[in-house]
Every structure is written in structure tokens, then in C-alpha cells.
């Protein structure tokens, strides 16, 4: 093979998988050819003659198994590596039996595993090619020598001289080879070797010639080095193997041995020639790559791939029950943002050490990534697993000291037990994740055993998420509008835009069902931008008809990012709406999450003429100091405080205080959830400026809101 980059043909009908492989291999310096099915792949091979083929097994037109069969017939020396899903192991084994060189499971989680397989196959092909060329050269010389022996006696002297010259050339050639080489009789007696072979074993050549491997080598090396020796011409062929041997330097060497027979002038096998390649360093690098592929770089623990391998081995062994615990740090993002990523990594390392120390020899601990750990407990039932989970929770009641910071963390733990909860690694990890997320939903800082009923909840949630994505694409979301009223005059001062999901069949999905899913998946960003743009468009359409009312739009925590002012400005510009007619409602929890971000975003919004209201006031963790500092136009009293006034003295006191505070600070107050005349009278007595609720109107679609407004104006 030349020194130019190896040419690799990638055959896969999955465009995404093929593009990922092509991109990685090209980044690794290879020249990559592509084909989307087996037939096209064979056409490319015959035209371009690549050095190696990566092929998926299941493809249209022609599958990978047929490609392997064709390659075995057409070019057996070209490596074929099967890259296919882990679920078709039997087909992969059959492909290897038919001539494939290696098998890598898809999806390829760590491309270094694939690259190692490619490097190993190319190296093996190169060595086979070198051996073939050497064998052909040796046979050529032997045949030339044999022909010369047939020369008549008259030419014997000159022929003898030529043979001696050629013999000297061969000896020089063999001696100059950097790889150890030997040749011996069929009985195993060494005829000769080069200096490299003698140095490897630490045995002088004069002591080696005339003796057998049995006399010279330890038992394990002897068994390897004579494997494949052929006693007769009918058994002539090639043999290769890999084994370890103690070298003369006192170190263990991993050797690849390649042997073949050679024949006499009558075509009878007369001896064996072999050469070694010291692959010690290659094996070391291979072990390093495998370690990197199965271990977490930060903690040195097994990663998700390594843990899955370990679980698979336990299941195949079938000799014990065991439990999996998936551990997730609660609200680690906030801690990481506060400490910085470097200290966050130290915290993760210290947490891992604490868990490893507790688990000890009862199991192994892994870190799949992020703020998650996995504990595999041997020979335990569900009760023992839950007891260990409680002990893990207990050891984190004490703080972790990280570079002078005392950090308290809590954990959410999901538990699954083999074989009750799953019969393979994938299902067990899935069950653990489901249980862990249930623990988080219940407030975190707890352990939760997987229950079959949880799967139904997850399935329902996934279906809702899928339908939510489709609903965004299909435009199934609409806005309803609820008016805000001046409590003194009864005039409408504005409206709040509220999103509703109306499916194709006319059914309405309640906001409390889909909003949490949208927030969790991040779809709330796209949904929120739709609400913002549609509300601005509708307000512009209503401006001439109803005057300068103010449109209120809710902003989620996910939307509250540095780019929010630009998004709002774009929506206003596209709708042609005056910024003074838009009010953004933001929860106090969102505002208090990152104070520097809040100040920056609010200043940009209010400088642009946009009003900002604090939504659900009193339900979060606000500070009166920041309330005074933030450029807030109004406060919305949460409906939970309005619901029981005036009968509930505590709620009445809270509402009275908030209204008074707003008046003293010069901040507008809107009471949400007003449904009764008694509530309205109480708020009127406090001189609460604005109210909103079902007492006046439920949220209405545009045409119904217009009719309500027309009727209101007439009254």
C-alpha cells in the first residue's frame, strides 16, 4: 500500500448515519466514497478500487450480506467491516463467517472505536499484502534457482556461481529485514533465521539452527509457533496468530506471527517460512482506546457504554440478580453556573468519590456523563437496593467542600432490579431513568423504585410531546384573549393573550397538560415566539377599532435569554405595532434566577418602550429591594391570593399589603382570578387599579372577544 491516504467506501442507506461516518473519517484524514445501497456500492468499488469497505447489513436493492459475498469472490484481500445495529447480532456473526473482517455496532457512540477497527483492518491488509509480495518474491527466486539446477553439466560452473550469488542475495535480503524471520523443515527443525529473530528470543543463531521450537521456547509460545505447521503438500497454506512472549529484554512482547509453506521443484511442501511483527505498542494503544471508550475522563469511572457492557456480561452469565441505581444531582445547573465549570467538575469528582467509598465491594459505580451516576449492586433484591439508595441520600446531607465553598447537594435516584424490571441493559437503564424522573417530579432528594405504571405515564407524555411538535408544524395553536378592566371606571384597559391548542378534530388540549411538556422539551421557545408574534399582529388589527389598549404576553423562563429583546423588536416591527401597546408578563421566579441577566434584559426592553409586569406575584422568591430596582410597570397578584378574599384574613392581608406597596412605589397592580362580586367589592375598597378574571369574561377567541368588546362599548 502507498503512503497516500487510505480510500474508504461507506455503504449505508441511512443518510444521517452515512454522513456522520463520512464526516468523521474525512476529518481523520481518509478519502471517503459513498453509496446508499449494496449494488451502488459494488459499482463504486469496481470503478474506484478503495482500500476498505464499511457496510450496513440491512439496505434496499442489495443488502450488506450480499456485498460481503461478492467481495469474498472478487477481492478477498480488501477489508470489509460491517457497521450495523446491535439488534442484528446473528446477521453480523453470519457476515463475519462469510468473509467480513470486523463488526462495529450502530449507532457508533464513540467514533474512536470505529477508527480503531478501520486502522486494525488496514494494518492487517497491509501486512497480508507485504507477506504475499514477499512470498511471491521468494517463490520466484526459488523457482529461478530450481531452473538453474536443470542446466546441463557444461553450464554447471557458471550456474553454480549464479546460484551462489543469488543465495547470497537472499541471505542478505532476509538478514536486512527488520522483522524477525525464520525458516524450518516440516519436522520443525530450524534451518535458519535472521538476526532480528535471534535477538528477539535471545538465542544465538548457531544454537538455534538444527534444533526445534520444542527445545527453545516455553510451552505457551511453542504451542502458538507450531500451530498451522503443515505435514504434507495437500495441507500447504498460510497461518497467522497473535501471542505474548518474554523477550530477551525482559519485557513481554505481543507478536503477530505469519507463516506459510514453500514447495520444492516437484511441488511438494518442503518447509515453512515465518515472520513476526511486534505489535506490542499497537496492542497498548488498542487497550488505551478501549479504556477511553468505556471510561469517564473526569472521574475514571465506567461510562454509560462501559456500564452497559458490564450489565450485559452479568445477564449473559445469568448467575445473579442485581440492581441498577441511576443517580442525578438535583438542580446541578444552578450550582454549576454559580461555581463555574471548573469547580463544578471538582464537585462531580468529589460526589463520585463519596458514592464509590460507600458502595465499596458491593458493586461498581459509573458516570454516564453530566451530573448523573450509575450504581450496579451485586446479588441484591429491591429492598436491599432501596436501602442502599437511602444510604446514598444520607451521605449527601453533609456538605461537599470544593475549593473553599461548602456546597449542599441533593439527589434523585431511580431504582430497577434484574430480572423483575427488565431482561436487558437497555430496558433496565430505561426503567431507572423513568423512576429517577418520577423522583424529580415529586420534588427530588428521594429514591424511587421503578413501577410498571410509570411506563404508561411516560408513554402518554412522549405521545403528547410528539403531537405537540406536529401541532406547531400544523398551526393548531390559537390565541384567546381575556380583558383587563379599570376597577374604578369599568373601562377595558387591555387584554392578556393566552395560548390554546385546538386539534384537527376540534378537541381542546388544556394548557396545564401541554405547557409543562413544552417547557421541559424546550418547545416553549418556538411556541412562545408564535404567541408573541400573533398577539402583536392581532393588537395592531384591533388598534383602530378599540383604541390604545395594551396587549399582555407571557414570557417563559426558557424565553428569558439575552436574545429576547431582539425577538420582541422583530415581532413588533413585523406587525407594525407601537412598543407602548405591548406588555410582557414575567414570573418573579424567572427574574430572580439570574439577576445580572434580568437587569440587562429588562433595561433593553423598557428602553425600547415595552412595559414589563411581574406575573404570579407572591408565589416565588422575590426581594423588595430588587422590586424597587427592576424597571417594572405593574404587578399581577396571583389568583391563589384572590380566590378566598375577603373571607380568608391571611389572603386579605396579603392583597391589602401588595396593593398598598404598589401605590407607594408607583407600580400598577392587577388582581387576577376575580370571579365574584364580593372579591371585586373588596378590591375596589382597596383602590386596586385593575382587575382580571371570569367575573368579566373568560378568555375568548378573537371573534368572540370582538363581540364582547362591542357589547361593552355599547353599555
UniProtKB/TrEMBL annotation:
Asked if the keyword Zinc belongs to this entry, the reply reads: no
Q: Which residues form the PAC domain?
A: 239-291
Q: Where is the EAL domain?
A: 461-713
Which Pfam family would be a valid example here?
Response_reg
Q: Record's superkingdom?
A: Bacteria
InterPro entries documented for this protein: Biofilm_reg_signaling (IPR052155), CheY-like_superfamily (IPR011006), EAL_dom (IPR001633), EAL_sf (IPR035919), GGDEF_dom (IPR000160), Nucleotide_cyclase (IPR029787), PAS (IPR000014), PAS-assoc_C (IPR000700)
Q: Which residues cross the membrane?
A: none
GO terms (BP aspect) = phosphorelay signal transduction system
Give UniProt keywords alphabetically.
Phosphoprotein
Question: Gene3D superfamilies from the xrefs?
Answer: 3.30.70.270, 3.40.50.2300, EAL domain, PAS domain
**Where does the GGDEF domain start and stop, copy by copy?**
320-452
Q: Which residues carry this modification: 4-aspartylphosphate?
A: 56
Occurrences of domain Response regulatory (ranges)? 7-121
Q: Which residues form the PAS domain?
A: 166-212
What name goes with this protein? Response regulator/sensory box/GGDEF domain/EAL domain protein
Q: Which organism is it from?
A: Nitratidesulfovibrio vulgaris (strain ATCC 29579 / DSM 644 / CCUG 34227 / NCIMB 8303 / VKM B-1760 / Hildenborough)
Species lineage = Bacteria, Pseudomonadati, Thermodesulfobacteriota, Desulfovibrionia, Desulfovibrionales
